[in-house]
Design brief:
Strand content: 35-45%
Helix content: 40-55%
Number of domains: 1
Radius of gyration: 24 Å
Number of helices: 4
CATH class: Alpha Beta
Number of strands: 6
Structural class: alpha+beta
CATH topology: Nuclear Transport Factor 2, Chain: A
Shape: globular
Distance between the termini: 72 Å
Largest sheet: 6 strands, mixed
Strand order of the largest sheet: 2-1-6-5-4-3
């Protein structure tokens, strides 16, 4: 059995180790918070670029914000697009090309960041003018976007949007 004196020198060492762990954890939390805030701001900028790519039907902007991985997808009321080529052809040129004027307003996006993955959820209002006939329309809905960081840059890997919730007894099933 060891005497009490054998353990006396351990207390300062343990205290130093605990203090070191606390400082290291605080630095890590601070770095994550700073990185998280930077990532969130980058994603908010990406959302603004997405809005502009829709409003102006700018495929160059779309090219910058979407991943080009084969599993990228976009679910919208007129279809499900797989891969960047289908997204540009069927959603941008097909669906959005129906309109001579477009204004997408993303409302109150909430962004969640987890390392190199993130998602946002929001509602939206879309004002547009139909090319054929000049009819003005306004639609509303909900949207979720998934992101992945590729070479330090956030890219959209999936979008799912739908109309607003259907309420009322036995509605929306």
């Amino acid at each position: 059995m060891r005497s009490k004196k054998a353990f006396e020198g351990i207390r300062p060492a343990v205290a130093c180790l605990v203090l070191f762990c606390i400082i290291a954890a605080a630095k890590t939390i601070t770095a994550q918070t700073t990185s998280g805030a930077q990532d969130e701001e980058m994603l908010r900028q990406l959302l603004k670029t997405y809005e502009k790519s829709i409003d102006t039907l700018d495929l160059t902007l779309a090219d910058r914000i979407f991943s080009h991985a084969p599993e990228v997808s976009f679910v919208h009321p007129r279809g499900t697009e797989k891969g960047f080529d289908q997204i540009t052809k069927n959603f941008y040129q097909g669906t959005m090309g129906t309109f001579s004027e477009r204004e997408l307003l993303l409302e109150n996006p909430v962004i969640h960041v987890y390392d190199d993955s993130a998602w946002s959820e929001m509602t939206w209002t879309f004002h547009a003018t139909v090319k054929d006939g000049g009819q003005k329309i306004t639609t509303t809905g909900r949207e979720t976007q998934l992101y992945h960081k590729e070479d330090g840059v956030w890219k959209i890997v999936h979008i799912h949007y739908s109309g607003p919730p259907v309420t009322g007894k036995l509605k929306g099933f």
